[in-house]
Write a structure and sequence with these properties.
Elements: E1 2-6, H1 10-23, E2 29-33, H2 36-46, E3 50-54, H3 62-72, E4 77-82, H4 87-90, E5 98-103, H5 108-141, H6 143-156, H7 163-172, E6 180-187, H8 194-211, E7 216-220, E8 223-229, H9 235-252, E9 257-261, H10 271-288, E10 293-295, H11 301-305, H12 311-324, H13 327-340, H14 346-364, H15 371-385, H16 391-414, H17 416-431, H18 438-444, H19 449-460, H20 464-482, H21 487-493, H22 499-510, H23 514-521
Parallel strand pairs: 1-2, 1-3, 3-4, 4-5, 9-10
Antiparallel strand pairs: 6-8, 6-9, 7-8
Helix pairs in contact: 2-3, 12-13, 12-14, 13-16, 14-16, 15-16, 18-19, 20-23
Length: 524
């Protein structure tokens, strides 16, 4: 990196150059100028990262220089060199994003520390800018994929967006939906060959997406789900249009389609409830043999009140039992999922098994299980379950696989050292929002503080303070991503009552401020 020094007194600029060259140990190029205009020409061409300039100079003052550098907008860090008498004048430089001030006569050590801080800040901002640009490039190139992932998340993952977050997602993904209904389409697949089933799924998909480009659609388990934008709140008018569409589709292809319609909503957070409504309609159509258009409002009361099997909730429950290592509950829940999907197609069943696998891999990534065990679990799924074509065999292998995972988790819990570290982690997880230290932890587990310090280092490879900071910052990142709390409130909730200190710790770990982190993560 290039560091520029500007002072109209050559003796001072040369002295500062020598100080910087010695203090920065040749790691950066240091240039000194006695003329501000010459320095400005150099800055415009070379774009140095850090600029140390006198504030009072003939011709171009430090304030004017800062203004012109600020207009170049490449993130240079400017440090003003000023005397006590000029300090109030120097404060005007704040509007030009001046990084810091050094008072004359300059203390060598303080000057080196200041410039090192400026260099670190410049590098951090450049890294942040590069990362932000990578996100932007990815977003532009993969917008359709991201839209599809967003729709899948709305339908099948227990994610809760605040109203503000939802609006931001809609803006970023260019989703122009104010009011909508969920519409689901399926067809009679009984005794239908797999290739024919795939063909008709494709026909339905193409028919709706080409004819109605404004809808957001997702195919899962032989059901075509659509988020259908509409201003029509009157149900029978909306259904009349859909009935015409259903008849048109029936004329194009020799298949009996059923269309299910949810209630009207203006909030995309209602999607999963509306998904349940259309699934109840489809279940009613299957039970009664009524392959036509049905709305949730038209269903008999016993169907509306009946709890419908929700695979997303079932998998979430399975993961909860897996986390506790309760083998009996795990197998009971897995059998429930198998029983509930017994009448579904092979394709649907396979999709559910893959969905369970994906959720378990995600769960495993967040627990302190050793890498070798995790790799064996992943390999066993790919080599023993993924390849099975017969439904019963796949279901049996899945249960054996879950038992194997439960045994690994139980072994991890039963290990003496793991029990102690888990005890420590539990205490930290429960209390990291409080002003706790190593003494509090040692008292909680009835051990000597020096022993606990060594044990934590030996067991984790990290210091107690590093673990505590990580827990606090992980919770802070979660709150920044998923809540509308002010940053001051988040800082207090994670154990940093001093906002300035929290910002310094967060920035030091993440190379970006909490506000910048929140801004970036709203894109995804």
């Amino acid at each position: 990196m290039k560091v520029v020094i500007i002072d109209d007194e050559p003796l001072i600029s040369d002295k500062l150059k020598r100080i910087m060259e010695t203090g920065l140990r040749g790691m950066h190029t240091v240039c000194a100028f006695a003329d501000a205009q010459t320095a400005l020409d150099y800055i415009e061409q070379e774009k140095p990262g850090v600029i140390l300039t006198d504030i009072r100079m003939p011709g171009i003052t430090g304030i004017e220089l800062a203004k012109q550098i600020n207009q170049m907008d490449y993130g240079a860090k400017i440090v003003f060199l000023t005397g006590y008498a000029e300090f109030e004048y120097a404060r005007y430089g704040i509007e030009y994003k001046v990084f810091d001030y050094l008072l004359k006569p300059v203390d060598e050590q303080e000057a080196i520390k200041c410039i090192n801080r400026a260099i670190s800040a410049f590098h951090a901002e450049q890294k942040h800018t590069e990362m932000y640009q990578i996100f932007q490039d990815y977003f532009v190139k993969n917008q359709e994929l991201i839209r599809q992932q967003f729709v899948e998340k709305l339908f099948f993952q227990p994610v809760i967006f605040s109203e503000k977050q939802m609006e931001l997602q809609k803006q970023k993904l260019r989703i122009a939906i104010n009011g909508y209904r969920v519409v689901a389409v399926t067809y009679d697949r009984n005794r239908m060959p797999l290739e024919e089933e795939s063909y008709y799924s494709y026909i339905i998909h193409e028919f709706f997406l080409k004819k109605f480009k404004e809808i957001l659609a997702l195919e899962h388990g032989g059901i075509f789900y659509m988020i259908w934008p509409t201003e029509e709140k009157i149900l029978w008018k909306f259904c009349s249009k859909l009935e015409l569409i259903r008849r048109e589709l029936a004329q194009l292809q020799p298949m009996d389609c059923m269309i299910a319609v949810s209630h009207y909503s203006e909030n995309l957070s209602d999607i999963q409830q509306m998904k349940k409504e259309v699934l109840k309609c489809l279940e009613y159509g299957k039970d009664t043999g009524c392959m036509q258009l049905l709305s949730y409002q038209d269903l008999p009361m016993e169907y509306r009140e009946n709890d419908f099997f929700d695979v997303t909730e079932a998998i979430t429950e399975l993961i909860r039992y897996l986390r506790s290592g309760n083998k009996k509950k795990i197998l009971e829940q897995m059998q429930k999922i198998i029983d509930e999907t017994e009448k579904e197609t092979e394709k649907y069943f396979n999709n559910i098994m893959e969905l369970i696998g994906a959720n378990i891999f995600l769960f495993l990534s967040g627990i302190p299980l050793d890498k070798e065990s995790k790799d064996k679990i992943t390999e066993s799924f790919e080599q023993q379950i993924h390849v099975q074509s017969e439904r019963k065999t796949k279901a049996d292998y899945m249960k054996y696989w879950l038992e194997y995972i439960a045994d690994n988790i139980q072994s991890m819990h039963n290990n003496d050292q793991d029990q102690l570290i888990q005890q420590i982690y539990k205490y930290l997880n429960d209390n990291f929002s409080q002003p706790i230290g190593l003494t509090n932890v040692s008292e909680h587990v009835n051990r000597n503080p020096s022993y606990i310090s060594r044990f934590i280092k030996q067991a984790t490879g990290r210091k107690f303070s590093e673990i505590l900071v990580e827990l606090r910052l992980e919770e802070a990142k979660k709150l920044l991503r998923s809540s509308n709390l002010k940053i001051t409130q988040i800082a207090e909730q994670v154990g940093y009552p001093n906002l300035q200190y929290f910002t310094r710790v967060f920035t030091g770990q993440m190379n970006m401020t909490p506000a910048e982190y929140r801004k970036i993560t709203t894109y995804f």
